[in-house]
Design a protein that fits this description.
The chain is an alpha/beta fold and 322 residues long. It has 7 helices and 18 strands. It has 2 domains: 108 residues, no CATH class; 197 residues, no CATH class. It has a 16-stranded mixed sheet that branches.
Length: 322
């Protein structure tokens, strides 16, 4: 076709030959469709851009149809047209093809949803439903095991064990945070006169800055004997009006703080294993060496029938009497 037009031009130089830039229509239609999709999306429409991008082969089909139909139309009409290729338009069309293919590939792996969620995340505090354990006369001992948390443990004059947990982390929305909380786990089991309660560490996700910390507040009736163990995290105890013995074992590098109020009939014993002791008390026994940190050292304060025995492995412990 092009050779025929060139031959006619040589025979009749006065004949005007139109030029057709292949790729212009394809580029225009492509931009039109993408613009419509983005416009609908900006008004909260349900037409998702990711779904449209899956139809990216239509761009190539449009380019091919433009070339075939134009040649056919020229042949039927007998119009003299010199075909040239719009390099910029074709380049942009191919660029859109590659970008669309990449976006579809990312969506298929879940990376687009991941990035979208990451952009919407913010720090939130989500409180779990409070758990209450009634205390009757037959219950004598509470064994409380917390793996990783910032714990605030208090004794009080009451008849139920109250456990409250707040999760501090980065969530896409409050609904997402509440859904996360529902997936966390704690267990309790009653065996005779003993109640075993275990609070597991919060699950960690894959989102950026998604490290979730749990802050636990536990109120324990003063008439219960308590055995407490914590592997990681920090803990603070506020003990008053104790009528039974307490055993506190805390491991890890985070600090442990114990405040004993109304210390009548109270005996405080501290076992140190590579931990530092901070206290304003005058202890009845001294450490084995001159440093405030010693392996296997023990200090004792007070004379009472109700004992608070503290075992600290690593980190630091502070024991004070107001």
């Amino acid at each position: 076709m092009v050779d025929k037009l060139m031959e006619e031009e040589r025979k009749d130089p006065q004949v005007q030959v139109r030029q057709w830039r292949v790729g212009t229509i394809s580029m225009g239609l492509t931009l039109l469709v993408i613009g419509i999709v983005l416009l609908i999306g900006s008004f909260g429409g349900s037409l998702a851009l990711s779904n449209i991008l899956k139809l990216w082969p239509i761009i190539l089909i449009t380019l091919g149809l433009e070339m075939v139909l134009t040649n056919t139309w020229v042949t039927i009409k007998g119009i003299r047209i010199s075909f040239t290729y719009d390099g910029l338009s074709i380049f942009l069309v191919l660029l859109l093809v590659f970008v669309s293919s990449g976006l579809v590939a990312l969506e298929s792996t879940g990376m687009l949803d991941y990035a979208h969620t990451a952009l919407r995340t913010s720090q939130r505090y989500i409180e779990a439903e409070k758990v209450l354990y009634p205390v009757d006369e037959s219950l004598e001992l509470l064994v409380l095991d917390i793996e990783d948390a910032t714990a605030d443990i208090r004794s009080y004059d009451g008849d139920e064990i109250r456990v409250s947990v707040v999760y501090d982390g980065y969530f896409a929305s409050r609904e997402a945070g509440e859904e996360y909380v529902q997936e966390q786990y704690a267990s309790s089991q009653r065996q005779g006169d003993t109640l075993f309660v275990q609070v597991y560490p919060p699950a960690q996700g894959m989102q950026p800055n998604s490290h979730v910390e749990q802050k636990i507040t536990v109120q324990i009736p003063a008439q219960l004997e308590v055995e407490y163990q914590q592997l990681h995290g920090a803990a603070r105890f506020r003990l008053q009006d104790l009528a039974k013995d307490w055993k506190i074992q805390h491991q890890g590098s985070r600090n442990l703080e114990v405040l004993v109020q109304d210390p009548v009939d109270t005996l405080v014993t501290v076992d140190l294993e590579g931990a530092e002791l901070k206290s304003s008390l005058v202890w009845d026994s001294e450490l084995d060496d001159e440093s405030p940190q010693a392996s296997g050292a023990e200090k004792v304060w007070g004379e009472g029938k109700y004992s608070v025995r503290i075992s600290k492995i690593g980190g630091a412990v502070s024991v004070n009497i107001p």
